[in-house]
Amino acid sequence: MRTTLVTALLSALSLTSASATSGSPQSQQQTTFTLWIPSSPALPNPNALPPSTHATLSSLQQTYTAPLSAANAFAFRNVTPGSYLADVHCGTHAFAPLRVDVFAGKAGGGEKKEAWTGLLVRAWETYRGNDWDNKGAEAPRSGGEYGRFPVRVLGPKEYYIERGSFSIFGILKNPMILMGLVSMVLFLGVPKLIDNMDPEMRAEFEEQQKNNPMNSLMGGGQQAGANPMGNFDMAAFLAGQGSKSEGESSSGGGKKGGKR
Fold first, then answer.
1. Integer Cα distance of 1 and 7 in angstroms
2. Of 61, 66, 231, 243, which is least packed with CB atoms within 10 Å of its CB?
3. Alpha helices for the chain (secondary structure H)
């Protein structure tokens, strides 16, 4: 009799726990959403994508894979809550990755107990190497209960680099070549420009060049107010000898002293 009562109690407890589990949110912690490829200038006809195109939804715990359907979409089913990175793998085109967050939606607040209403899905554009908390533009959602998020096409993939060809314009774009050409034009054009100048203007130009203080620095002729250190002989000074002018004055003084 006691065995029968214990068995009945155990069966009642198992049925109660099973009913509680079936009605709890944990049994509904899965959702379905879709990524679809719209037509764009980079991909006018999505139907031209190869059949091997597929999408992955990956996180640290698990990974989902969805093939390309006839409607140019990727359906992810039985997705549990979490934060995922959605990538579209295609051999001909590149797609922008998406950050997809699946989380439980809550209703109510304050002192009332929050009621579980289901799983919500939101997506944002991102790129590899970006901080995970730095979200980009949010992808628009459509499709009602089962969300549909568009995937942006970046453009066709290029596996080959076009061989460079010889171009005279490419050579002229080099900064060193441009500087050389400008210097050559100045070197050859300025003298001809001076020869074709008006005589009075030319005489005025030559007078200005004579009074230019840069002539003394560039090795020009002796002028009034020139640097007195221009005739300084550094080698003779280091050898213990005076300058030429001092030597000549000393030799002249010696002759005068001899005569005296």
1. 10
2. 61
3. 2-23, 168-172, 175-195, 199-210, 214-217, 234-238, 244-259
Q: How far apart are CA 151 and CA 138, in angstroms?
A: 11
Comparing C-alpha atoms, which of 151, 142, 123, 126 is closest to residue 46? 151
Tokens at residue 192, please?
Answer: 């001809």
From residue 76, alpha-carbon distances to 41, 49, 188 in Å are 27, 19, 74
Shortest CA distance to 88 belongs to which of 59, 56, 136, 63?
Answer: 56
The predicted model scores a pTM of 0.52
Task: Kindly give the parts of the chain with pLDDT less than 70.
Answer: 1-28, 106-117, 144-146, 214-235, 238, 241-260
3-class DSSP assignment, residue 99: strand
Q: Which amino acid is at 59?
A: S
pLDDT of the residue at 20 = 40
**Intra-chain end-to-end CA distance of the chain, in Å:** 161
The residue type at 93 = H
Are the CB atoms for 138 and 123 separated by under 8 Å?
Answer: yes
**What are the pLDDT digits (tens) for 101-145?**
998 875 444 444 444 457 889 999 998 888 888 888 888 888 765
